Amino acid sequence: MSAPSLAPLLERHRVVLCVGSGGVGKTTVTAALGLAAAARGKRVLCLTIDPAKRLANSLGLSHMTGQEQVVAPELVERAGLTVPGHLSVMMLDTKQTFDELVVRYASSDEARDRILDNRLYQYVSTSLAGTQEYMAMEKLLAVKRDGGYDLIVLDTPPTSNALDFLDAPERLIHALDSAAVRWMMQAFEQSGRFSLNLVAKSVAVVLRGIGKLTGGGFLEQMAAFITDLNDLFGGFRQRATEVAAAFRGPEFGYVLVTTPAPAAVREAIFFADRLEEQGMHRDAFVVNRVHKRPRARPSREEIESSIALHGLDLGASGADRLDRALAEETELAETDAGELANLDRVLVPGLRGTRPIRVDIPALPGDVHDLSTLGGIATLLCPG
Q1: Interacting residues of 281 by C-beta distance below 8 A, sequence separation 6+
Q2: The domain 11-176+248-291+298-381 belongs to what CATH superfamily?
Q3: What's the whole-model pTM score?
Q4: Assuming Cys at both sites, which of 223, 251, 298, 325 could form a disulfide with 188, CB separation 3.0 to 4.6 Å?
């Protein structure tokens, strides 16, 4: 029986998203899938919002920026890899992406300048609910439209809840359509100045308190800012709806990354169910840090004979320590096998009628921080 492979996934989709909770190895899987696709001759871009230096190091780069960076062919060759394609990486700058949207959709040059110069814009463009995740979606679609790549692999933003990313368009629309925003716009638009007389009494009390703390000009500046944003977000709401629809389309594939840790498996199962509920297909699962059962547990005598055969000087307790290590590895493997059996229960045909693939990556002695090791993981993900 051949080993499971994600290679068909890379052929079937133009965009592959690696999703999952934090700390399960999404960034490494993203880079390895990009390397695997480039090894098959594709033009690939790996997008990440995580500036982790270990990813840059594993790709032979000193750092990552908001501009496309090509992984130099000589670095790949030096690592003993053959990559006939083209591999680039880019770190997403969500603030820059928001600025670009303002420039593109503002109703006039004056409105554009007022928005970009407003001191509240720094907060809205970085801290409004869903902004970071949504801007990652926008940048991905912009790169996809450019047509310069056969495949884009996205490392989804590090969040406390992985669902934050896929819920981003809806959450951003909800924030923009909130009652507080509508009240403030109404209070400003009817007179051209901010008037608490036009706001509901309960809200007016709160806003008067804010005004005492910040100064009267702050509320008027906020209302003017929101009014400028109204024209921008009139089309922006429609844009967010279109973005949400695109991520449910056939060009997009989803790889759920997890580990055999019980909490991580439970979250992966929950996340897989939510993907289906939102009309997104769970194409594959990658399980990192899997402990494999030893083929055969050696006896104490066999351990001692092996130590002697190889001339190892492990001291009087060497055989005991090796025996305990093997026992611990076997116990970890049995625990992992039980959790993987739980995961297998959700590997049923989904919205597209196909059963998700599961690929296991064995536990490694350390983090991935070189191209050679990354190439080994790429081979495990896409053998052959």
Answers
A1: 253, 254, 275, 350, 351, 352
A2: P-loop containing nucleotide triphosphate hydrolases (3.40.50.300)
A3: 0.80
A4: 223
